[in-house]
Design goal:
mainly alpha; 3 helices
Length: about 110
């Protein structure tokens, strides 16, 4: 029983390690995003060629457009809006809580 668990764990670890090794060797995890996308597409074509079908080439690569300044400004804006609304929300929540307790005592 314990041997089966060890073999199962070893197989999973081997598959995970092999996937990491293959994607790293093919340049998927590079510093340049364009090179990574091209490498990922090439990797998918190679896998499909070995499997004899079109499994990974049908998967569309998502476009990544990340504007950090907009994300940062949005986060700061939402944080400041939250902080501005805290006193009103706390006051409203306390009044509702007091009214609820008062209604329970009736």
């Amino acid at each position: 029983m314990a041997l089966a668990k060890i073999v199962k764990f070893g197989a999973k670890l081997g598959l995970f390690g092999g996937a990491i090794y293959l994607t790293t060797a093919n340049g998927v995890w590079g510093n340049n995003s364009e090179q990574s996308i091209k490498s990922l597409q090439k990797f998918g074509e190679n896998v499909d060629a070995h499997l004899g079908g079109s499994y990974l080439t049908q998967v569309k690569v998502p476009s990544v457009e990340l504007n950090l300044s907009e994300k940062w400004n949005y986060g700061v804006s939402k944080s400041l809006d939250f902080m501005a609304d805290v006193p009103e929300k706390v006051t409203t929540g306390c009044k509702n809580g007091i009214n609820y307790v008062a209604d329970q005592w009736k």
